[in-house]
Amino acid sequence: MPQKLIVSLVPSLTELLFALGAGDTLVGRTRFCTEPEGAVEAVPIVGGTKNPRVERIIGIRPTLVLANREENRREDVEALRAAGLDVLLTDPNSVPEAVAMILEVGVQLGAEVRAQALAREIVAELRVPLRAPPVRAFAAVWWNPLMGLGSQSYGHDLLERAGFANVLAAQPRYPELTLIALRDLHPDLILLPDEPFPFTASHAPEFEEIAPVKFIDGKLLWWYGPRLPEALRTFRDLAAQAATW
Fold this sequence. Notes:
The chain has helices at 11-19, 54-60, 74-82, 95-109, 112-126, 154-161, 179-184, 204-208, 218-222, 228-242; strands at residues 6-8, 26-29, 64-68, 87-90, 135-142, 147-148, 164-166, 189-193, 213-216. By secondary structure, it is of the alpha/beta class. Strands 5, 6, 7, 8 and 9 form a 5-stranded mixed β-sheet that branches. It has a 4-stranded parallel β-sheet with strand order 2-1-3-4, sandwiched between helices.
């Protein structure tokens, strides 16, 4: 059977490709696909997640393009499909959906054994008892305007399964709000990730007037795939620690 030729338009799916032992099938990636470091650099770049070079991708003639409903534009996906390319459009908005996606990608790549092993590792982490009552948390997404992590999203489900209660659970996706509105939500902890907006120590003072601040690795919050077991462990431990503060 001819080897698959894959173009990935999603950084976390590029990383997943290598985790499943199929990195040698990757023939195109976005400039944001930088993981695993040391393994992707030789793979040609085909633009960004929001502005892929569609004609170049079509010229490569991959057997499969990995895309995501949130990260990639509908018109680009439709153009690739109109050119006859097979596009796997992923859209995990919860941890179980991410597990299902991993298994589906495994089937597409002929890497079912590794995908099933990763899925079992994730399920095992989900079964670990939480060690404290839920901690009310706010996870920032963007600054100016301030946006937070709401429900109906992968990050929300991940945090809640790790022992947090999202103070924006009543709002979908990534709502805008003010610092005054955030204060009125009474979070116990504010999480500041380094992506998609690179929050730094310079942003901490305004948030610290509301609640303690914890800087976190954004990839653990946003990247579904091989980071999921570590993400569940990290946020579970953080929730347990925060409950004692």
